[in-house]
Amino acid sequence: MGKAKFILKEPTSKTDTLIYLIFRYQYQRFKYSTGEKINPKFWNTTSQRVKTTKQFTEHPEFNARLDKIQNGINNAFRKLLNDGIQPNNTNLKEALEIELSDNIVKPKKLSLFKFIEDYIEESKLNKSNGTIKVYNTTFTYLKDYAKKYKPIDFESITLEFYNNYLGFLKKHNLSNNTVGKHIKTIKSFMNEATERGHNTNLEFRNKRFKTIREESDSVYLSVDELKKVEKLDLKASPRLEKVRDLFLIGCYTGLRFSDFTQINPENIVSNNTVIEIRTKKTGQRVSIPLHKTVRTILKKYKNKLPKAYTNQTMNDYLKDVISLAGIKEKIETTITKGGKVVKKPISKHKLVSTHTARRSFATNLYLAEVPTISIMKITGHQTERSFLQYIRVSQKENADKLLTHPFFN
């Protein structure tokens, strides 16, 4: 007989999260979205049921629904065996939904667009404004496509749709990376809908349904360039001075904009030698040794950094700061827009943004022979491959770095 249990999708969430049924049988694992949601504070992980508490008065009915699902999967599995049918995840799901066909707990059938609309609203509680903006933009393009060509639902997301949609996006003169971001977001929507039991069409997981990506012309600032920025006398322009200081904090901590602009006195620990912070995007706790430049800036502001401008405003002011530092060498950029490759030289200061700080940190530490695994502990990269794609090292810099390797001596 198989073994059933219930788990929470996000056990550490502060808001309601989905409950999944996990059924293990014959060395296989079946996962099913119950359609039920609960705040983890009301969940008993031992009993795998809602706690008996006055704060959640409907716990008897809620647990009864989970009991029904558990009985349903056990009955479905037993009936398949009794009928001489070898259980697999597909026929097990069908048999379970027959058991639950009275619709007491069966997830409500949603259209793709209704699901996306609800998912975006739900995501506002636990995802960044930037992510919500990406979701909304992708949703807008999907609605435009459906209006111009034909209605879209879960079963519409096929390889034929993929090829047609790529053409549609390219007509909007979008860069390859922007197109890729929209495809990636659609796949995220479909994955989430599949996990929740709203979708059974898995063609979006075909290897040909791929996210387009081309290497961006992201730049980094070397240690010498950062020293030029640090030495700038910006007292006559408090706004630029503030932007410069915050940017340097990012360059010497590797933190994202959302994190280095939120450093508080309580994040400075170990006798003012380490920053400890939980990153906003991943929830990861990182510890970063304080660089002397960071210590100087923190001392200047008494460990309480000034309130930052918005990311976009900071990017605008930052270009002025880098220009004043004399960092204006021409960089040849290449971008594919609307299917056409466009090359043009751009002054380096115009390519600098708040994210350049994070790239500069990773690249400068890599060139300084800091072990890759130590850098990844701060940047949060999961694989060395993804990390090496992230850093910016020119062919000459790579050759200079190899000159000190024993193989070349």
Automatic annotation (TrEMBL):
Pfam families, A to Z: Arm-DNA-bind_5 (PF17293), Phage_int_SAM_5 (PF13102), Phage_integrase (PF00589)
Keywords: DNA integration, DNA recombination, DNA-binding
Domain Tyr recombinase: 216-403
Record carries keyword DNA-binding: yes
Record-level GO BP terms: DNA integration; DNA recombination
Domain Core-binding (CB) span(s) in chain numbering: 110-194
UniProt key word DNA-binding: yes
Membrane-spanning segments: none
GO molecular function: DNA binding
InterPro entries in UniProt: Arm-DNA-bind_5, CB, DNA_brk_join_enz, Integrase-like_cat_sf, Integrase_catalytic, Integrase_recombinase_N, SAM-like_dom, Tyrosine_recombinase_XerCD
Similarity annotation: Belongs to the 'phage' integrase family.
Name of this protein: Site-specific integrase
Source organism of the structure: Allotamlana fucoidanivorans
